[in-house]
Design brief:
alpha/beta; Rossmann fold
Length: 354
C-alpha cells in the first residue's frame, strides 16, 4: 500500500508560518539586545546585590472563610516565609450580607465580629509559629470583594495577591469564582491562583514547594514569547528553581478524509514549535537552567498532562486580553491555564515588571 503524501498546500502554509515566526523572533532578539546594551551602562552603577526577599515583599491574601481560602492562605504563608515578606490577610464584608444580618439576625456588629473571626481563622490555618516568624497584618472592610481586594493591594503596597480560584460564591461555577475572575481582569500585580481541592481543609503546599522546577505556558509568535520567558526565568531564579517551557500546538478541526494530511502537518508544526521553544530555552539559560516541551492537542488537557507528568507544582502564565476572555480571546493560553488549573498558577499582567 502506497503511503499518502502530505498535502502540498498544508506543507506550504506551515513552512511559511515557520519562516514568519523565525524572522519575528530574530528581529525581536536584535531589538531587545540593542535596548539592553543601551540601558546597561546607566544601570550598572546603581546595581545592588540581590537579597533573598527581593522578589515578593508584600503578599496580600484575601479570604472569605471558605476552605478554599484556607488553602490559599497556606500558600501565601509559604511565599511570605521564603522571601521574609509582609503577609496581609484581608476580609471584605459584602454590604448585602451586613444589611441582611442587621435585619434578620438583629446583629449590627458583623464587621466587629469579623475582626475576631478573621484572627481565629488565621490561627487555625497557619503554622503555630506564624505570629513570631511572619510580619502579619489583618484588614477587614465593607464593600464589593473584588474592589476591596484591589484597594487593599494598592493601600498595602502589595506585589502579589494569593487567592483561591473558587470561594463561597464560586464553588458551583463551571470555571472559576466571580471574585477571582474580576481580580484577574483588573489587577496590575501578579496573582497566585490556587485551584480548587477536594480536601482543601487539610491540603497545602509541600515543604519544598514549589520544588526544583517551575513551568511557564507559552504562546509562540511575535515578541511576547521572549518577554514571557524573561519574566518566568526571573521568577524561577527567585524561587531557586529551574524553568520548564511548555507549548501546546492546538488541534485543527477537520473531516476524517483529511486526517492523514493533517496528521503529517501536525508533526511538522510540532517540530517547528520545538525549535522555537528550544531557542527560547537557550535564551533563558542566561538566568536559570531551562528546557522545553512541546505537545499537540487541546490546550487545557495537554498543559494539565504535561504539568502532571513533569511533577510541576507552580505554573507561570501571562495575562493578556483579560477583558475579552469570554469574547474573541476565550481560547487564549492564560484563560485555559487558569480555568483548568491542577497546580497553583502565578498569573502576571503584561505591564508588570519582575
Amino acid at each position: 500500500m502506497v503511503r499518502k503524501r502530505p498535502n502540498a498546500i498544508v506543507r506550504a502554509v506551515t513552512d511559511a508560518m515557520w519562516k514568519r515566526d523565525l524572522l519575528e523572533m530574530q528581529a525581536a532578539d536584535r531589538l531587545l539586545s540593542a535596548i539592553e546594551s543601551r540601558r546597561r551602562p546607566a544601570q550598572e552603577p546603581r546595581r545592588r546585590p540581590a537579597r533573598r526577599g527581593a522578589g515578593f515583599q508584600s503578599v496580600l491574601c484575601p479570604i472569605d472563610f471558605s476552605e478554599q481560602s484556607r488553602l490559599a492562605l497556606r500558600y501565601a504563608e509559604a511565599v511570605a516565609r521564603r522571601g521574609d515578606a509582609r503577609l496581609i490577610v484581608s476580609y471584605a464584608n459584602d454590604p448585602l450580607l451586613v444589611a441582611a444580618a442587621a435585619a434578620a439576625l438583629h446583629d449590627r456588629r458583623v464587621s466587629q465580629r469579623s475582626v475576631s473571626e478573621l484572627r481565629t481563622f488565621i490561627d487555625a490555618t497557619l503554622k503555630p509559629d506564624a505570629s513570631k516568624r511572619l510580619r502579619l497584618k489583618t484588614q477587614v472592610s465593607v464593600g464589593s470583594p473584588a474592589d476591596e481586594i484591589l484597594k487593599a493591594a494598592a493601600r498595602g503596597g502589595s506585589d502579589l495577591i494569593v487567592m483561591g480560584t473558587h470561594g463561597l460564591t464560586g464553588a458551583n461555577r463551571l470555571l472559576m469564582g466571580s471574585t477571582t475572575l474580576s481580580v484577574l481582569q483588573r489587577t496590575t500585580i501578579p496573582v497566585l491562583a490556587v485551584p480548587w481541592a477536594a480536601d482543601a481543609s487539610n491540603a497545602g503546599p509541600s515543604p519544598s514547594w514549589p520544588g526544583e522546577r517551575i513551568a511557564v505556558a507559552l504562546e509562540l509568535g511575535g515578541t511576547a514569547a521572549g518577554a514571557d520567558v524573561e519574566v518566568a526565568a526571573r521568577i524561577a531564579k527567585w524561587f531557586g528553581a529551574s524553568l520548564l517551557l511548555l507549548h501546546v500546538v492546538g488541534d485543527i478541526a477537520a473531516p476524517d478524509w483529511l486526517g492523514g494530511d493533517l496528521s503529517a502537518a501536525d508533526r511538522i508544526r510540532v517540530a517547528h514549535a520545538q525549535q522555537q521553544v528550544d531557542a527560547l530555552a537557550t535564551r533563558a539559560l542566561r538566568t536559570v537552567r531551562a528546557e522545553g516541551r512541546v505537545s499537540c492537542g487541546r490546550i487545557a488537557d495537554e498543559i494539565a498532562a504535561l504539568v502532571a507528568a513533569e511533577h510541576v507544582e507552580l505554573l507561570v502564565t501571562a495575562l493578556r486580553d483579560r477583558r475579552g476572555w469570554f469574547g474573541a480571546r476565550r481560547g487564549s493560553v492564560s484563560y485555559h491555564v487558569l480555568s483548568h488549573a491542577v497546580s497553583p498558577v502565578l498569573a502576571y499582567p503584561r505591564q508588570w515588571p519582575p
